[in-house]
Amino acid sequence: QAVRESLIRTHEMELVRVIKMKDSEIHRLQGALVTLRDGAQDKVKAVLQAEAREDARRAWEGERVRLLHDLETLKAAKKQVEEMLTHTVTADKQKAADLRTSHHAHQEEVTRIKRDSERDIRRLMDELKSRERSVLSLERELGAQAGYAQRLALQREALDEASERRNAGSPKREIPAAVTNSGGVTGGAGVKEGHLEERDVRRFQLRIGELHGVVRKLEDRNALLADERNELLKRVRETEAQLKPLLDKNRRLAKKCDDLVAAQQRQEERVRGLSRENLELTASQTACVTCGPPSGHEEMEEGDEADETEIEFLRLQVAEQQNIIDDLTKALQSAAYDRNAMELDIIRWQRKQKRRSSRSSKRILTQKLVGVEREMSLDSDSSYATDRTAGTPGTPDTDMDEHMAREETELRFRHLMHEYQALQRAYSLLHEQLGGGLDAERDALTREQLQADLLKYQARVEDLERALSQRGQDATWVEEKQQLCRRNQELLQKLHELENDENSLKQEVQDLQDQNELMEFRILELEERERRSPGLSLLLPPFREGDSPLQWYCAREAAMEVSIHELMKKLDLLGDNANLRNDEQVAVIQARTVLSLADKWLHQIEGTEVALQQKMIDLENEK
Q1: How far apart are CA 72 and CA 98, in angstroms?
Q2: What pLDDT is attached to residue 377?
Q3: Is the overall model pTM greater than 0.70, yes or no?
Q4: How far, in Å, CA of 454 to CA of 477, rounded?
Q5: Which of 68, 136, 238, 477 has its CA 20 to 30 A from that of 277?
């Protein structure tokens, strides 16, 4: 009993001592918990801020690298696009020049074809008319010859009748005497006249045959000329059909010329606006110079950049206006060439008509003289009356020829005048459609104005170049300046992008701060709730060194420690036994799989526990 009481007292003393130790340990842990709770907010906030700052810095660096890479790719793409643009612009200019040259060549070819066709038509018409006149003259000559032959036949019949009357009225007794006395004379005269008449008839028949041959040849020639005329008319129609697209193209080019004139006017307005801005800038620069020295290098760079841009713009304007001037001068030259060619054709035609009329009059006179000589040679044995009757019918023929030639020239002149008036009307219509672009005076005024503008712009460019040379700067400096300006623009753009990124990061930081404030407010609410709630008495049982609460719980519940490796070995031995059924073997395999997964999970939990312990150690060291 005494031993029992002594053991009870010692046990109670030991319990009291252990309780005191546990109470002191609890108080110590509660104080550590309070300190940890007080410092955890600041630490968590600092850690979160550091992590957010580090994440923001990493994101900013990554975004910066990405933006730099994108900037390089955009630069390369821009360079390629600029090269493609320059190539396309040069190709377009070359194509426009080729089209312009081909257009002018087509116009020249069309005018040449029209001129050649008109000349061929006129030549063929002249040949036709000359052939018709020759045919008419030959027909008149044939009619004169036929009339002369008929007159000779009538004279012969009259002579035959006279000889018959003479023979019938003489007495029979005088016949032998008459025969003897006048046989030599009358017989000789009759024989001579018969021979002359037969010779004239044969000659007239030969002449008539020759004239018929000439008429047949002329008819064949007339048929050939008619075929040629039809072919030429067909060619004229084909040329007109070929000219139709060219005329449409000319109309489109005229419309394009109007568009270019409108664009030129717009460019002139822009140039005026730029000149006004330049005057304002020069006035402001002079005002700055009078007020004091320049504010800095940036203003000088801005002024130089404005001057360079203005120089480039003026150069482009001068090039465009030079192209427009060239186009207008070519159009004016072609119009003037067409008008001069038309006037020259009219003058040549008038000269040809004059020469033709003089030649026709000379030809008529020579034909008249030849006809008179021929009639005189043919009628050498006829009387004066016969010669007079043969010569008088030629006078109205010559008058008729002259009258016909005059009427023909008048008709031709009227026809050409009608053509000239039609061309004038077409020219006036074209002039109205183009809005007066082909007016000579207006073209001259426009040319003078364009030349004056060109000289003014050239003088402006020279002044700017002189100003650059006075500053001691050249084209290389201008190029370097342009590159520097482009670099500044790129840097400004990059700076704007970085500012946008910074603003976005600031917004994210602000959001994180708001979230931290919400978390702090939530922590305060939890602390207030914990303060108002009844206190918890944490009666922790004593642990051995190196034991965890889980092990203590297992020991209290009389749970046995299980070794996974031993269980795996037992399962291997059990699986090697051949007396197992199929479902038992499947259960063994599933158990092995579950044990392997549990082993992996335990290893992961141990790794997590080690990491948490290390973190707690680090937190204690930071205190």
Answers
A1: 38
A2: 43
A3: no
A4: 26
A5: 477
State the Rg of the chain over Cα.
65
SS3 296: coil
Report which residue type is found at 377: S
Record the tokens describing residue 229, joined without a space.
Answer: 């005329």
What is the DSSP code (8-state) at residue 293? S
- Its sign, for the CA torsion 61, 66, 67, 73, is positive
Confidence label for 374 from pLDDT (cuts 50, 70 and 90):
very low
Single-letter amino acid code for the residue at 564: I
Which of 335, 327, 328 shows the shortest CA–CA distance to 97? 327
Distance of alpha carbon 77 from alpha carbon 484, whole angstroms: 20
> Six-digit token pair at 500?
């946008």
Provide the residue type at 354 as one letter.
K
Q: How far apart are the C-alpha atoms of 132 and 216, rounded to whole Å?
A: 13
State the sign of the Cα–Cα–Cα–Cα dihedral 372, 378, 381, 382.
Answer: negative
Cα gap 326→447, rounded to integer Å: 10
Structure tokens at 79: 């360079």
pLDDT at position 105 over 80 = yes
Q: Do 136 and 214 meet the contact criterion of CB atoms below 8 Å apart?
A: no
Contacts of 412 (CB under 8 A, 6+ apart): 349, 353
User: Do 124 and 232 form a contact (C-beta atoms < 8 A)?
Assistant: yes
How high is the pLDDT of residue 342?
54
Calculate mean pLDDT across residues 6-35: 80
Distance, C-alpha 247 to centroid of its chain: 21
Structural tokens at position 326 = 């060239």
Q: For 242, list phi and psi in degrees, rounded to 5.
A: -70, -30
